[in-house]
Design goal:
Elements lengths: L1 E2 L7 E2 L4 E2 L6 H18 L5 E5 L5 H13 L6 E6 L1 H4 L2 H15 L2 E7 L29 H16 L6 E4 L39 E7 L7 E2 L10 E8 L3 E8 L5 E10 L2 E8 L6 E9 L2 E9 L2
Parallel strand pairs: 1-4, 4-5, 5-6, 6-7
Antiparallel strand pairs: 2-3, 8-13, 9-10, 10-13, 11-12, 11-14, 14-15
């Protein structure tokens, strides 16, 4: 996949490809088409991403892609930057990506995102995010808050209809301060001020490939037995929640070590199904545990290869 330009809501290669309201689209589209031709001349199978910076802004996203498609620009993937302090809440992102996926029938990538693990400074360079007013209320500026935000983002991408969500890129995970070189992004990295990897990396250990929600609202909480069981290499987990709750669903080995976090975020009442891939795990007995409010339950699953 090749991205033509970066956050090109205002056009590219100014002044030739600058967008100014309703003007400039012809020149801008010509530049994009030339870039796409260059990629296709090398390999016709490479997917083309068009990336803008309007993660939670549906009206601006529609304006851009309506005009772009009217110019006949042929692309495969919509890329969106999503930084909450600039581009809204996770529900606003969800609303936007759901609409874009159905409106343009394109795959969706969150091409840039980040969240702070602290509001403290380690150098003399002012940080981009340094005030609690820039945070999402449910995600404090802590390592746990950063990890939970990323899990919430993962669920948002997984919930895009028709499996149109491809994934996300974290920007910029290693931009910490160095001697003689400060960083305005140091508290948004995935490393602490000493360069140690944060526990936030645990979100990349999860292996869900889809999450679906069923329409009927259950009367009580329930964790169902996975199916099939035993399994190889995939199995389904199904659970029901009766209230709007913060939900976690995790997989553990026989020693109680966490293997994967499949769900970690707030969920509306409903019945959910998660597909778990154990292809990278050895055969054996594992446990999966659901926690939601006062409800907690653990069940056993068996992987046989």
């Amino acid at each position: 996949m090749v991205q033509i330009g970066n956050e090109i809501t205002g056009g590219m290669l100014w002044p030739d490809g600058k967008l100014n309201g309703s003007t400039g689209w012809s020149n801008f589209a010509a530049l994009l088409k030339a870039g796409i031709r260059g990629v296709k001349d090398i390999d016709t199978t490479v997917h083309i991403m068009i990336h803008i910076d309007k993660g939670g802004d549906n009206s601006a996203s529609r304006w851009f892609f309506d005009n772009l498609t009217a110019q006949g620009v042929n692309f495969d993937v919509i890329g969106l930057s999503y930084y909450p302090w600039w581009q809204g809440t996770l529900p606003e992102l969800q609303s936007n990506v759901n609409d874009l996926a159905s409106r343009y029938n394109k795959k969706i990538v969150v091409a840039e995102t980040a969240y702070p693990w602290t509001l403290s400074w380690n150098d003399n360079v002012p940080n981009i995010v340094g005030d609690s007013s820039q945070l999402l209320p449910e995600y404090p500026a802590t390592v746990d808050g950063q990890r939970n935000f990323l899990n919430g983002l993962i669920q948002t991408v997984l919930n895009i209809p028709n499996n149109k969500g491809m994934g996300f890129f974290y920007w910029e995970p290693d931009w910490i301060s160095a001697p003689q070189l400060g960083s305005s992004w140091e508290n948004l990295a995935l490393f602490d001020f000493a360069g140690n990897a944060a526990n936030s990396f645990s979100v990349f250990n999860s292996t869900p490939v889809s999450v679906s929600q069923r329409s009927n609202v259950p009367a009580s909480f329930a964790l169902h037995q996975n199916y099939p069981n035993p399994f190889n290499p995939t199995t389904h987990f199904r659970f029901s929640i009766a209230n709007f709750e913060f939900v976690t669903l995790k997989v553990y080995d026989l020693l109680g070590r966490e293997i994967a976090t499949l769900v970690n975020g707030k969920k509306s009442p409903g019945t959910y199904e998660v597909l778990f891939d154990g292809s990278k795990l050895p055969s054996g007995v594992y446990f999966y545990r659901l926690e939601s409010g006062r409800f907690a339950e653990t069940k056993k699953l068996i992987l046989i290869k």
